Known about the structure:
Helix content: 40-55%
Strand content: 15-25%
Oligomer: single chain
Strand order of the largest sheet: 1-2
Number of helices: 2
Order of helices and strands: HEEEEH
Mean pLDDT: 89
Radius of gyration: 22 Å
Low-confidence stretches: none
Distance between the termini: 22 Å
Amino acid sequence: MSTFRAFRISASGLTAERLRMDTIANNLANAETTRTPEGGPYRRQVPVFAPILSQAMGPGRPGQGQSGEGVRVVAIVSDESPPRLVYDPQHPDADGDGYVAMPNVNVVREMVDLVSATRAYEANITALNAAKQMALKALEIGR
């Protein structure tokens, strides 16, 4: 694997995990938003990742002969789980029975996802630094 390829793979992981952290932050910021331009409460957003594959050299059968080139975000989708119903007859968005449709954002789940995204981001930084150190050592050998 070339050094620059390792840099590209780690960079794609950093970009994807950063977007994941931004999406989680947006979910947390809107955890109490009961009105959206589309109508109804805010819906939790989730990024969808897909691998970036390239054709490896040599003959390959279907599903084989591909090597990883990183990750990309293919979409950010809305979580279609139902909203939480909270009894609050004084709320301006309460229905006739006094229930308010709250966003389907679970703060605990979002925090767990945030820790996971942070760890994945740190792992990509570690891989990037390891590739950088190997490249520097290779340059030192050439002196």
